[in-house]
Amino acid sequence: EKLPKVAFWALFRYATAGEVLLFMSGVAGGGLQGVAQVIMVIAAGEAFDAAGTADTDAIKDVVLKFVLWSLVALVTGLFQSGACLAFAEIQKARMRKIYCEAVLHQDVAWFDTNNAGSLPGRIQNDIEVIANGLGDKAGLLALNISMFVSGYAFGFARNWFITTAMIVCFPFMAVGAAVMGKAMADFQSETQGSYNKAGSVAEEILGAIRTVVSFGAENKEHTRYCDVLIPAKRGGIKS
User: Fold this and answer.
1) CA angle 203-189-9, nearest 5°?
2) What is the pTM of this model?
3) How far apart are CA 239 and CA 232, in angstroms?
4) CA geometry: angle at 99 spanning 7 and 130, to 5°?
5) Residue 187 and residue 239 in contact, taking contact as beta carbons nearer than 8 Å
6) Which of 11, 172, 188, 209 is the 20 to 30 Å CA partner of 22?
7) pLDDT band for position 48 (50/70/90)?
8) What distance in Å separates the CA atoms of residue 236 and residue 239, rounded to the nearest whole number?
9) Are 147 and 34 in contact (CB under 8 A)?
10) How far apart are CA 31 and CA 142, in angstroms?
11) Residues 6 or more apart from 40 whose CB is under 8 A from it?
12) How many helices (H) and strands (E) does the chain have?
C-alpha cells in the first residue's frame, strides 16, 4: 500500500521555536559555506594566474584571500553540520517517544492488520529517514543551492559568454538528476520494505527459538530469513 506524502514543513510540528531557529541557522551556515567555496575556487584561479607573474605582492594578496575564505568555509561548515545534526538528534528522540505512545494507544484490531514483529524495525527505519532529511542533508541541500546560484552569479559577472554556454547543458543535467533521484527513492522504498519483513521474521524466530531448536529447523529458518532479504540486496546493488 502506497502511503500518502507528507509536506516537508509538517516534519517540524514537534519542534520548538528555539529548535527551528537552530535548524535555520544551520541552513544559513550551509548557504554561506556554498558562497565561500565558490569564492575559494575563484581565488585559486587567481593564485595560479598570479604564480605565472613576478608580482610577489599580488601573489601574497591572492593567497591571503584564499586562506581567509577557507577559514570562513571551515567555520560555516562546522556550524552547518553541528546545528543540523543536533536538531535532527533532538527530533529523533522526541519522535521515537511519540511513535511508541501512538502504537501503544492503538486498538486491538490495528495489530491484526499490522505485524507486531516488524514494528521495532519500522520505528527505527522511519525515524532515521526523517532524521536524515532534517539533519546534514538539509544543510548540504542549502550548500548545493547556494553554490549553484552564487556560481552562476559570479560567472555572469566575470564572463557572461562562457556562463551562457554552460547554461545550455543545464536542462540535460536536471533531467538526469531527476531520473536518478526517482530511481534512488524507489530502491530505498523496496529495501526498507524488505528490512521490515526481515525484522518480523527474526522477531518470530527468536520468540519461538526453543521450538525451532527442538525441531532442528535452524537451517530452514535461516534460509527463510535470507530469502526475505534478497529484494533488499538487489535494491542495494542497484542503488
Assistant:
1) 110
2) 0.66
3) 10
4) 40
5) yes
6) 188
7) confident
8) 5
9) yes
10) 5
11) 66, 69, 70, 73
12) 9, 0
Out of 82-86, 125-129, 185-189, 228-232, the most confident range is 82-86
Euclidean distance between CA atoms 167 and 113, whole angstroms: 52
**What amino acid is encoded at 69 in this protein?**
W
d(Cα 211, Cα 183) in Å, to the nearest integer? 42
Angle (CA) 150 153 159, round 5°:
130
**What's the chain's Rg over C-alpha atoms?**
25
CB 68 within 8 A of CB 118: no
Can you tell me the distance from the alpha carbon of 185 to that of 192, in angstroms, rounded to the nearest whole number? 11
Cell numbers describing residue 191? 529495501
The grid cell for 115 is 505485524
In this structure, how many other beta carbons lie within 10 angstroms of the beta carbon of residue 220? 11
Name residues whose C-beta falls within 8 Å of residue 90's C-beta, 6 or more positions apart in sequence.
15, 19
**CB distance 103 to 178 below 8 Å:** no
CB atoms within 10 A of CB 49: 12
Q: Which of 26-35, 84-93, 99-108, 185-194 comes out lowest in average pLDDT?
A: 185-194
Instruction: In whole angstroms, give the CA distance from residue 27 to residue 166.
Output: 27
Most confident of the ranges 143-147, 208-212, 230-234: 143-147
Residue (of 212, 12, 229) closest to 121 by Cα position? 229
Instruction: Please give the grid coordinates belonging to residue 2.
Output: 502506497
Sign of CA dihedral 103, 106, 109, 110: negative
Take residue 199 and report the three cell numbers written for it. Answer: 525484522
- Residue the block writes with cell 532534517: 134
